[in-house]
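To the team - tryptophan complex, inputs and output below.
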Amino acid sequence: MMENGNKKVMVSGIQPSGELHLGNYLGPLRHWPEMIDEFDCYFFLADLHTITVRQNPAELRKRTLALLAQYIACGLDPEKCVLFVQSHVPAHSQLGWVLDCYTMFGELSRMTQFKDKSAKNADNINAGLFTYPVLMAADILLYQPDAVPVGEDQKQHVEICRDIANRFNGVYGDVFKVPEPYIAKVGARIMSLSAPDSKMSKSQPEGCVFLMEKPEDIMRKFKRAVTDSDTERCVRRAPEKPGVSNLIQIYAAATGKSYEDVEAEFEGQGYGKFKPAVGEAVVETLRPIREETERLLADKAYLEGVYRAGAERAAYVAEKTLRKVYKKVGFLPR
Ligand code: TRP
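Output:
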């Protein structure tokens, strides 16, 4: 099944810095189980990246485990892909250092995410924030992947990874496979329930439905969802009705119905019936994920087994690449 050399390889990291929400789930996450059928996948929780912004240690630990459980509950079967924690595989930091020496100050200064994050964290513009893309390049290149699934905001980081790999290969021969960004199926682009002009985001909790949220809280958020001042209160998609269009999209994604079917189903019914119906559909969609996550979190031994086995399999591949790199740059073998 794994590492049989036939399937293409894919790597991706997820920062354990926030909670998963409906936008993540109905967007990219729902398509990940299809990806693990198609590719040999390495997925890790990027805890090393997360500390570029100050974290509460107990919370980071808890969230890392909780996210692992949530990803498994969402269908990332640890028998079918390699799930691990970034800090459990030291080769990431080790290759990161080597690649630091093949990355230019100037090119890191141009990274838009660095500029954004240093503007937001003006009191903590640390060197890790600056070299973040180099660690990410190491994360990727260690596994010699064909593809890296990323969202729009990370494309520049995959570009610099390719530049670093090409530069290194230019000096030492073909050490790294140069990966392509893989624009994963994005699914639905879910907007905030309270401000439907912006994307659903954890930074606006009132408009955001979290995967682990209680059904009554989910229902409350949907009942309060912002719609519009259309006097007919018509359940219909239209550019001037972003709130209702978003709810139609959510309902369609949660039930598997087409937009047209949803519009027909609620014709002449107004928003009073529609909003709770969307809430209920979401509650039912998330229920099995929440219950499975809770079940997994009650079984710490199982989760430990998953991340230990994952780290072992990842380290096997990663260390092979690292040894090659150390040899190429001229380190004396131990
Ligand atoms: N920087 C990515 C993000 O914030 C997370 C990440 C770290 C990553 N290392 C990676 C993604 C390697 C893809 C591949 O979303």
